Amino acid sequence: MRAGRLGVGVVGAGRVGPVLGAALANAEHAVVGITAVSMSSVDRAEALLPGVPVLTTPELVERSELVLLAVPDDQLAELVQGLADAGIWQPGQLVVHTSPDHGVGILAPAMAAGAIPLAIHPAMAFTGTSVDLSRLRDAYCAVTAPGPVLPIAQALVVEMGAEPFVVAEQDRPAYADAVRAAVSFSTAIVDQSAGTLSSIGVERPGRVLGALVRSAVDNALTAADGQSAL
Question: 122 has which bridge partners?
Answer without folding.
Answer: 141
